[in-house]
Amino acid sequence: QVHLKESGGAWVQAGGSLRLSCAASLSIFSTSIVGWYRQAPGKERELLARITGSGSTEYADYVKGRFTISRDNAEKKAYLQMNNLKPEDSAVYLCSMRDVWGQGTQVTVSS
């Protein structure tokens, strides 16, 4: 059974940075696409970025230039570096792989 666990969420002031981690228990991690999503209260879950096993990335327009997705296949981890955070980035951030979701980590950005 696959498990995903996010970490790194915190309270930060606007303009700050955070690095989120997603740890996976999956033997085929290196060939799996990993996605980072977020969901704010009362809003739909939205895709932020995805990365393939070989490292190809794609981003939603609203995070391009501020967020960077990466992965370490040896450690079975994926990361989301978030810079210049804004209050509207406040949400629960989740990672997903092969239709499995983690429980999320809370990011709160104050103005």
Produce the secondary structure layout.
Layout: E1 4-7, E2 11-13, E3 18-24, E4 34-39, E5 46-51, E6 57-59, E7 67-72, E8 77-82, E9 91-97, E10 100-101, E11 105-110
Parallel strand pairs: 2-11
Antiparallel strand pairs: 1-3, 3-8, 4-5, 4-9, 5-6, 7-8, 9-10, 9-11
Which stretches are poorly predicted, pLDDT < 50 over at least 5 residues?
A: none
Distance between the termini: 40 Å
- Find the structural class using helix and strand composition: mainly beta
Task: Provide a count of the helices.
Answer: 0
What form results from the Cα inertia axes? globular
> What is the residue-averaged pLDDT?
95
Proportion of strand residues: over 45%
Largest sheet, in brief, is: 7 strands, mixed
Number of strands: 11
- Radius of gyration (Å): 13 Å
Please give the share of residues in helix: under 10%
The string of secondary-structure elements, in order, is EEEEEEEEEEE
Name the descriptors.
single chain; 11 strands; 111 residues
What does this structure look like?
By secondary structure, the chain is mostly beta strands. It is built from no helices and 11 strands. Strands 2, 4, 5, 6, 9, 10 and 11 form a 7-stranded mixed β-sheet that branches. A 4-stranded antiparallel β-sheet has the order 1-3-8-7, with no helix packed on it. Strand 9 and strand 10 form a beta hairpin. The termini are far apart. The model has no long low-confidence stretch (mean pLDDT 95).
